[in-house]
Specification:
Blueprint: H1 3-17, H2 24-32, H3 36-52, H4 63-69, E1 80-81, E2 84-93, E3 96-103, E4 108-114, H5 117-120, H6 123-139, E5 147-153, E6 156-161, E7 167-168, H7 169-173, H8 180-199, E8 212-214, E9 220-222, H9 227-230, H10 243-252, H11 264-268, H12 275-290, H13 300-309, H14 324-333, H15 345-362, H16 374-384, H17 390-398, E10 407-410, E11 414-415, H18 423-438, E12 444-445, H19 448-451, H20 461-468, E13 472-481, E14 484-493, E15 499-508, H21 512-526, H22 543-556, H23 561-577, H24 582-595, H25 602-619, H26 624-636, H27 641-654, H28 659-672, H29 675-688, H30 693-705, H31 709-712
Parallel strand pairs: 10-12, 10-13, 11-13
Antiparallel strand pairs: 1-2, 2-3, 3-4, 4-6, 5-6, 7-8, 8-9, 13-14, 14-15
Length: 713
């Protein structure tokens, strides 16, 4: 029996279940069109269902159910369920029909899923589903579909959720396998969603490419949490021998999940736990990087036999470019004995993040853009010859003098959230505080690259102080649950180890702007810095726009094209929520600058960077970083060296601690052949960001160009 035949039998079987008992015979006669074999299979399934026990107590059929049953779902257009008015049908599947709807109260578009009657007829099962669905709603996780409401109207149960633009992973896979880096990123987002759900005691049970949505900005959403639970019933003691009965039991829920993605324990019908999701994610990851499912067969029975008894073909059979670490991750996720798999999805998530970090290190370094300049190319070639020996001497020589008392490094805050999925938020908090402190005259701030070089390391403050040549370090933790944020910050003297100040804050998310200002003021007061002007105050911003901005900021600091373009999507999404958010425009200018030459054509990237920088400056003339990117656009695109120089002078007036502004300022005299001035400025940049590789390389090249070989080494 072919899969197509099985699907036909399945569709007729379910349609027959919706008929009144007196109408079943007439329905089968009409539908099977004289195909006695087909009719016999369906009648056998109906009889088997009676033997196994009724899956549901048949309720009164609502208007919507009757319309869908009769294949006239489009007739629901214009109908209202609760306060949702249907516009058009946008999808369908075993879990129900999905419609585009308008929320007449909130004034927004929504996706409205009408659940099949076979899932909602059992009152106890429906109650369990509603309890779990409400728990999912409470998660409020960025990678989980936001559910607005679970309701009932016209005897029809529905789920209203956010409308996701994009395509399912299943649709994406029809175009072939996915590049390893992108596949790992998708898996990380899915794992992050699962980690949050598992923390709340919720198991998805049906992770498959059809339940994973890919937005155009690279963001991933996991759908249908809790719906597989709705389909659950008592499992059989063993896998049914009859293939047709197996089909019924599989779809009724005793063997849950889309068959190629179910775990061995699901295939056996034994109770499942969170490790079933780990298996399914392993299957999805395998398919993404190879373009093939690991377990196949001509029928559901053959597929499940493969899951239970066979090992999948090695990844290298289909894709020879798969890293060894990826093969190990998938192999561990697909252990048939769940005791041998990752015991938590958080463990798998960490392994995936470690792999992503290694992949990023192998990506093309952004400084290759500099080959557009003959002088810069000479610098890079000179430095390359000395790379093996120089870094040790250069970094040691930078930290021989005692650091100024009023100097500080802001280390990336540590994520203590239950699902460990707030890395972008922690990094963003750290950067925003660093940016605010950098504007304080009389306080020396170490740049982001150097401060963040300690991320994930257990370095003590004395070591940080010695390497970055700072007297003080700010470190902290963030724990976020829903819209509540708990931040603990500590200011520590690197020489004595003395805690100069510490505080714990608990805020709603909308209070995070004021919180950053509070921490900045506390640091300035603790270090007894005299303020020439008052500290800048963050404007109260749309929190959705700010979250998207922080995610864009997080990915803009990575090196791969996929991450940079993803950052672009987040910044654009932030501006959709708040078009006046100047920092989001600065983010777009930054991304296009880093895309230029390496990943995008200069005549595409630089005009886009320039336009975004101009918009940022129009909204906030005091944005030093925007002036930096406008300077580069004027230098490269317009050949306006005087204009570029003016922008950088303004950036340094606004932010004397800006390592990028000092660095870009050094490039102009170096490109003009003013080597001594270029060396002076790049050394200023190096003091502010001593661990930045590119700054160190250019400083070395500038020494060599000035015939100061002893200083270079």
């Amino acid at each position: 029996m072919t899969p197509a035949q099985l699907q036909t039998i399945e569709e007729i079987f379910y349609a027959a279940l919706e008929q009144d008992s007196d109408d079943v015979a007439r329905f089968l006669e009409t539908t099977c069109e004289g195909d006695e074999l087909l009719r016999g299979e369906v009648e056998g399934l109906l009889a088997s269902r009676q033997r196994v026990g009724s899956f549901i107590e048949t309720p009164a059929v609502g208007i919507a159910t009757r319309i869908i049953r009769n294949g006239q779902a489009d007739l629901l257009v214009g109908q209202t369920f609760g306060h949702y008015k249907i516009s058009k049908r946008i999808g369908s599947g075993g879990m129900g029909e999905v419609y585009l709807a308008s929320d007449m109260i909130a004034g927004r578009k929504a996706a409205l899923k009408l659940l099949p009657m076979r899932f909602t007829g059992d009152a106890e099962r429906l109650k369990r589903f509603q309890q779990e669905a409400h728990a999912v709603v409470a998660l409020n996780h960025p990678n989980i579909l936001t559910v607005y409401e679970i309701g009932e109207d016209h005897s029809t149960h529905y789920i209203a959720s956010e409308l996701i633009e994009g395509e399912t992973l299943r649709q994406r896979l029809t175009r072939g396998r996915i590049e390893v880096g992108e596949a790992v990123d998708i898996a990380i987002q899915v794992a992050s969603a699962l980690a949050a759900a598992h923390e709340a005691g919720i198991v998805h049970r049906d992770i498959n490419p059809g339940n994973i949505m890919l937005r155009p900005d690279g963001y991933v959403k996991v759908l249908d949490f809790g719906i597989a639970k709705l389909a659950e019933q008592e499992a059989p003691a063993a896998m049914p021998k009859d293939e047709a009965l197996l089909l019924v039991e599989t779809n009724l829920g005793s063997i849950l999940g889309t068959v190629p993605y179910i775990s061995p324990e699901q295939a056996c019908g034994v109770p499942v736990d969170k490790r079933t999701d780990i298996w399914s994610l392993g299957v999805v990851l395998y398919e993404m990087v190879t373009g093939h499912q690991p377990f196949t067969g001509g029928t559901p029975r053959e597929v499940m036999t493969s899951i239970l008894e066979k090992e999948p073909p090695p990844l290298t059979t289909y894709n020879k470019q798969t890293p060894a670490e990826l093969r190990q991750i998938i192999s561990k996720a697909l252990r048939k004995d769940r005791r041998e798999r990752y015991q938590s999805v958080s463990e798998m998530l960490q392994a995936l993040k470690n792999l992503r970090h290694k992949l990023e290190l192998k990506a093309a370094p952004l400084w290759l853009r500099w080959t557009r300049s003959p002088i810069a190319l000479v610098f890079v070639l000179l430095v390359s010859a000395l790379l093996l020996a120089l870094p040790f001497y250069r970094h040691r020589n930078l930290t021989t003098s005692l650091p100024p008392d009023k100097s500080i490094a802001v280390l990336p805050f540590v994520d203590l959230s239950p699902a460990k999925d707030q890395e972008y938020f922690c990094d963003g908090m750290s950067e925003e505080i660093l940016d605010a402190l950098a504007k304080v005259d009389g306080l020396r701030i170490v740049g982001r690259t150097s401060s963040f070089s300690f991320k994930g390391k257990n370095a003590n403050v004395n070591e940080v102080g010695e390497k970055l040549n700072v007297a003080n370090v700010l470190e902290g933790t963030v724990r976020r649950e829903g819209n509540r944020v708990r931040v603990t910050a500590e200011l520590i003297n690197t020489r004595s180890g003395f805690h100069l100040w510490s505080e714990t804050y608990e805020r709603e998310l909308q209070g995070v702007f004021a919180l950053q200002d509070e921490i900045t003021r506390a640091i300035v007061e603790s270090l007894k810095v005299k303020l020439a002007v008052s500290l800048p105050v963050h404007e109260q911003r749309n929190t959705e726009a700010y979250e998207l901005y922080l995610q864009g900021l997080f990915f803009s600091n990575k090196s791969s094209e996929a991450d940079l373009r993803r950052a672009l999507g987040f910044f654009q999404g932030s501006l959709e929520k708040d078009p006046t958010f100047s920092r989001a425009w600065t983010g777009i200018a930054k991304v296009w600058y880093f895309l230029a030459d390496v990943y995008a054509k200069p005549l595409e990237a630089y005009p886009a960077s320039k336009e975004a920088a101009l918009k940022a400056i129009a909204l906030d003339e005091k944005d030093a970083e925007a002036h930096c990117y406008l300077s580069e656009a004027k230098r490269v695109l317009d050949w306006d060296l005087a204009g570029a120089d003016a922008e950088l002078k303004r950036a340094l007036e606004l932010d004397p601690n800006s390592a990028p502004a000092h660095f870009f300022s050094a490039l102009l005299p170096l490109f003009r052949g003013e080597l001594k001035e270029g060396l002076r400025l790049v050394l200023e940049a190096e003091k502010l960001d001593p661990v930045s590789p590119i700054t160190s390389y250019v400083a070395t090249a500038a020494y060599l160009a000035n015939d100061q070989i002893d200083d270079a080494i």
